[in-house]
TrEMBL record:
Chain ranges of the Methyltransferase type domain: 46-138
Annotated Pfam families: Methyltransf_11
Descriptive protein name: Methyltransferase type 11 domain-containing protein
Organism: Nonomuraea rosea
Amino acid sequence: MTKELLAYYEQDREHDRLREGRGRLEFWRTQDVLRRLLPPAPARVLDVGGGPGVHAEWLAADGYDVELLDPIPLHVARAAELTGVTARPGDARHLPAPDESADVVLLLGPLYHLPDRAERVLALTEAQRVVRPGGLVAAATINRHAAVLDTVHLGHYLHEHLRQAAHAAAANGIMLSPVRGFSAYLHDPDEVPGEFADAGFPVVERYGLEGAFWLYGDVNDWLDDPERRALLLDAQRSMESVPSLLGVSGHLLTITHRAVLPSDQHRATGDVDDDAGDPARIV
């Protein structure tokens, strides 16, 4: 947690980022994907790095048992005000939660702020520790070329220092934002599965959240109209996992499940292997 990162988030900008403008596309698409894949409520959800509770709020309204962890005091205070949400300080790399204590672990922001690969794998490993066998883990990442695409869309590409920062991020993944004042890590979509695998998740599913639609000049008009919004979400849903299109989205959502081992099944059912200590079983 750098002082620059803390200063940015203490301005309370995150409260409205997904509630206004084209950020709503990221929000609704994240909600759309998760609602299709989450276990039924009232499953226990650990929302790691959940900010002021934008996603925790609808998850609690859907009947989930939601606990939010975040390192920003303002975010924790805001989330604690939400109905049905428990909030406390926490770091994705060292989760203050017992082993196998959650049905779902969400990392919808922490991987942005961990430029060191080893720390990103550590955060995913912590999620693997905390989630129950068979439980779901979802992590959001920013795509490698998002900065170039966004600076062109916003007109910032005309400014040399912003153009250079965007291209540097495309080259090495490190986005040093002159606007926000802190750095972020931008993933190549194809490197994400390797980080999950190193954390004990060999099988993943990837979902492009915004597709190319976040770059459309009239995207807010579509999002403002419920009927057109439904069509827009349906359009992106039809191509959300096409490999050649994953990197066009500003954000990627990667989903996995913790493997269920035979020992996990025995614990869940109360079965005891009476022959476990029988030397005759050793070949």
